[in-house]
Amino acid sequence: MVTDADRKTGPDFQVLGKAEFMPVGGFSLPNGIEVSLLEGGSQDISKIDWIFPAGAVQAGKPLLASTVGNLMLEGTKNRTSAEISDLIDFYGAHLNVQSYYHNSVLTLVCLTKDLPVLLPLVEDVVRNATFDEKEYLIYINKRRQEFVIDSEKVRNLAARTFNKVIFGPEHPYGRVPELEIFDTMTRDEVISFYKTNYVPAGCRIIVAGRPGTDIQELLTRHFGDKDWNGGLPSENGFPQISSSEEKFHLVEKEGSLQSALRIGRPLFNNHHPDFIPLQVLNTILGGYFGSRLMTVVREEKGLTYGIGSSIVSYKQGGIWVIASEVMGGMRQAAVDAIKGEMQRLVDEPVDEEELALVRNYMLGEMLREFDGPFNTSDIYRSLLEYGMDFGFYSKMMSVIREITAGELQELAAKYMRPEDLYVIVAGK
């Protein structure tokens, strides 16, 4: 007999218990490159990350690291740009480079059986990129046009200004590109950075999936050569974080109908004992679709279509930031509503029903993030950067399950003080 579903009562859920993380093996190549191996999955597919100390910090200026990473795939001594693209397409593979603050990561995803064909291509890209003059000029002109277009968007202006205000314009995390960088950067700088930073010193390889029994021999053949050498990448030093003394910053954009908001403060990285507990507090405030900011600022007050908050960890610090876009005339009302929700977390303990919901959401998200060897390898790569292992997430699970409303209220009182908050508005 079929009965009507009870749509007023949600399904039961169970709180996640102890997690089992994928084991990490590994080996060293003859030239000292360390290889981490996360084997798993049901398909014969492999994902390999080559991590080089070739990020914006080592570059010492905006644009340089990402330009090198993107142009590496546009031709080598042995292959043209078209030949590289055709080979990747023929084998249904994926090859790209992503540049971050402290490193650049070249990633190959392909069928395991195709590794003997595609690893020589990766070796060629890493060791023999030519940065053809024509390709370089095409790329720079394209990036310039994209920069001009992006600079018209208030959310980009607010994001750039927020980091500059929090860290200072001379700090690598606060340094943002200006239009003239496209005219002052040279191809010679690009080639020099490539030769100095895409070297075995500081390189790390992470292999995930089902790479086969000959993966060590293949990587040794193509990346273990002791004759492959180069300079020692430099971190270029870190100036002191120099946050602005002014807490309110307005970036006017003529003709804009909306204002982009960034409200937040400087913080610490994931080594700090309060980092994990603050992740729970942040989730309650604005870290998921059912958060207080979404409920109050979006649904109840109708001030914005979307709003969220996040805590970001860097090697040399961190930030807590709330981001949204509102109609220009609603700007102050939105700022007041955001601050009001932060103050409510200071004044009132979170009730157990809401806390249970957030616990379940965060633990479920953690399971999703560790779904499969490829996702797990991405997390492992991030942990390596901070000198951590999967024990960090075991601790996070314990904190999520055990933190109390009283502890969250104490954290809110400590880190949500109005005098610590910076407000950046871009628009009108």
From TrEMBL:
One of its GO terms (molecular function) is metal ion binding. It holds the Pfam family Peptidase_M16. InterPro entries: Metalloenz_LuxS/M16, MPP/UQCRC_Complex, Pept_M16_N, Peptidase_M16_C. Signal peptide: none annotated. Residues 185-360 form the Peptidase M16 C-terminal domain. Residues 68-138 form the Peptidase M16 N-terminal domain. Coiled coil: none annotated. PANTHER family: METALLOPROTEASE, PROCESSING PROTEASE. This is Insulinase family protein. It comes from Xiashengella succiniciproducens.
